[in-house]
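Quality-control log, excerpt.
Job 1 of 2 completed; input and output follow.
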Amino acid sequence: MDLQSLVAAHMPNRHRPTQMGASAEDRYYRNQITLPRLRLRLLGLIATTAGATLLLAGVIKA
């Protein structure tokens, strides 16, 4: 369990959440764990940063 879920579980809540069955709970937590998909913009930023780092480190000869 991550820190955010632990804090949220112990916060007072005026509205009681509806009870979930075992399969619904499994689906809920499985959907929470999935990693976000990398967008093209983020991949471009990572590639640019890696290229600049290698260039400054002298690995790539310009």
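Job 2 of 2 completed; input and output follow.
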Amino acid sequence: MSMSSYSDVFSISHEREYDEEISVGDLVRTGPNLFPHFEVVALHGDKAWVRNVQNGADHLALVSRCRKINGQAFAQAAE
């Protein structure tokens, strides 16, 4: 028996409903929540290596779940 995810149980879709290119250096979030924010460190195929800007923790995320924050790169947003 496989475990159900929160997304499966509540039928939550994390896929982006629009086309927006994600690039290395972009500031993104990974869902409808406003936080946490992540900096895109690297991209490979459909996966993004992202770093939490608050605590520095690294994660892998599907690019389709990443949403650019205000369309700005991290370096620009930090200014």
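Post-run check on job 2. The two ends are 49 Å apart (CA to CA).
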